[in-house]
Amino acid sequence: MTTWDIICIILNMAGALAVFLFAMKLMSEGLQKIAGSKMRAVLKKITGNPLSGILTGTAVTAAIQSSSATTVMVVSFVNAGLLSLSGAVAVIMGANIGTTVTAWIITLFGLGDSAGGFSLPMLLAAVSLFFIFSGRDRMKSIGQTVIGLALLLVGMELLQRPMANLDQYPGFLNALGTLSDFGFWSILLFVAIGALLTCLVQASAAMMAITLVMCYNGWIGFDVAVALVMGQNIGTTITANLAAIVANSAGKKAARAHLVFNVVGVVITLIVFSPLMSFIANITANLTGCSPYTDASAPGYNHESVPLAISLFHTIFNVGNTIILAFFIPQIIKIVNWMVKTKAEDTEDEFRLTYISGNWLSTAELNLQSAKSEIEEFSKRVLRMYTFLPGLRTAKEDEEFGNIMTRITKYEDITDRMEMEISKFLTKVGSGDVSEHSSKRISSMLRIIDNLESIGDTIYQIAMTRKNKREDAVHFDDTLNANLAQMRDLVQKALDIMDSNLHDYDHIDLDAAYKAEHDINQFRDRLRAQHLNALKLGVYDYAIGNAYSSLYALYEKLGDYVINVSEAIDDSRKHQDD
Questions:
Q1: Given pLDDT bands bounded at 50, 70 and 90, which one contains residue 170?
Q2: Cα-based angle 5, 9, 10 (whole degrees, multiple of 5)
Q3: What does 492-543 look like in DSSP terms, one character per residue?
Q4: Is the pLDDT of residue 89 over 80?
Q5: Which single residue of 117, 148, 168, 482 could bond 26 by disulfide (Cβ 3.0 to 4.6 Å)?
Q6: Is 64 exposed, middle or buried (0-12, 13-18, 19+ CB in 10 A)?
């Protein structure tokens, strides 16, 4: 084998792999668009029942054809407190079962001469869907999915072509044979190789495709292929763990649970390796008339026997491990709690994006969920910032007052930066291939974060008014302080309603939001009338009156921004439902 031959094979395989990966991405995106918000809603309703979590993880992953997308969503939900760690572990177990669908698609339709025969009519059908139903987003998504499946089969056919020429290079086969001659140590070696390659490629489906093609052509034996598949199950966990880098400790634990489950599953399989392989070999022999251990050069060898056996193993591996380990979810949680120590850290005064930093997902739907979660964090920051205001009135020492002002100033900077970063993220999402409804949701979200940032600015203006009042030695009597305290409480109630609405779009209480704004406006009108009358009667001087009227006016202005957020939430919910 010359250097040029090696380069040609590598280039051909790289091109075929690129087509396969693009097809998987296209098909997965189309399926995720079809599933849409239902997929997210189902995951959010998972209870502590392991069976419901497993079934949900299986169904969602089988529907969207991406275990990585499912596990990343799980990490995101655990991070946001929407899903318990035990529920997350159950969903992850189900996701491993759901991902076996890909192997069966490849085995049944993507190997041998059938791949190309299926591709052209499927591609034509998908193109016709795009033209006929171009005005309906759902039909577009179905067309995209069919095109992705067609290209996946084309990619499989392209992968087989350079593989088919490897029999001309006995050196390659001898090298594989040498690595396979160390008994059980060879199994461990190929487990490690499978894990490493999957980490590098970042697509277990692609590695599964390569493994199945090599099996089909007889370049690797059944045991080696099984070892590669086990390694791929470990390597695929890297996606969720990368997504968890920016997550809190709960999110990191969910990602580690994925790793622990797959590693423990491999260990269990290695313990029962010989009887399990014999069991699968017997089933395959009954179905195809050929054992997966039959030599490829032997008479009557069936090329389909080993790929079928691998698909059977992949399914039995994931289903069997799930059945066994479902009884040990509490123990898995103990392990991940040991792996990820929950730190008693107070990072609330630091700027940190939790959901959209370095975590770009494949579809607008999933990215909008990340943005929604980040907006909820934005709201929490704003509410926390608002709680600092009472301390400015009660602070006796200048140092205490200065410390509170420093925190408010820091939070004001954080709100500015969060508004800018989330806006950039949403703009990037909107610049891609998004549906009309997603585009409207993005507009609603941009309106929400704009008003949240304005709330932060107004809180800062209230703080600065308090600061100027203190520096000018302006003092309010008990009546004025009580009025402002009542106004502050009314705004607090409105903020709480806004925050509650942000966390649950499906049960938004717009009537309560309007009622809270009405109470703020009504009380502002009363204070303004009293204030004008007090100025006429000379109850207090201009400096006191100016500071007092500025404060209650700012609180009322803050209430306006709060109701704007709830109205924008309602718009976003409508677009989500559509």
A1: very low
A2: 115
A3: HHHHHHHHHHHH-GGG--HHHHHHHHHHHHHHHHHHHHHHHHHHHHTSS-HH
A4: yes
A5: 148
A6: buried
Helix (H, G, I), strand (E, B) or coil at 291: coil
Residue in the block written with tokens 């109470």: 519
Q: Which domains does the chain have, with CATH numbers?
A: 3-339 (no CATH), 364-577 (1.20.58.220)
Task: Quote the pLDDT of residue 81.
Answer: 57
Residue linked to tokens 């994931």 = 318
Place of tokens 């489906």: 205
375 or 129: which leads in pLDDT: 375
CA distance 378 to 503: 11
pLDDT at 156 over 60: no
Query: How far, in Å, are 104, 213, 362, 435, 459 from residue 139 at the CA level?
Result: 25, 33, 19, 12, 47
CA angle 248, 251, 254 (to 5 degrees): 150
Kindly report the three-state secondary structure assignment for every residue of 40-109. Answer: HHHHHCCCCCHHHHHHHHHHHHHHHCCHHHHHHHHHHHHHCCCCCHHHHHHHHHHHHHHCHHHHHHHHHH
Strand intervals (E) in 139-231: none
Tell me how far the alpha carbon of residue 222 is from its chain's centroid: 35
The whole-number average pLDDT for the span 356-376 is 71
Query: Helix axis angle, 137-164 relative to 114-132, nearest 10°?
Result: 160
Whose CA is closest to 24, among 89, 77, 68?
Answer: 68
pTM summary value: 0.54
pLDDT in tens, 264-289: 999 999 999 889 988 998 888 888 78
Query: How high does pLDDT run on average in the chain?
Result: 78
* Size of the chain in residues: 578
Alpha-carbon distance values, 337 to 53, 84, 327 (Å): 20, 13, 18
Alpha carbon 329 to its chain centroid, in Å, reads 22
How far apart CA 291 and CA 284 sit, in angstroms, is 6
pLDDT digits (tens, 9 = 90+) for 410-427: 899 889 988 988 998 888
Residue position matching structure tokens 């929407």: 82
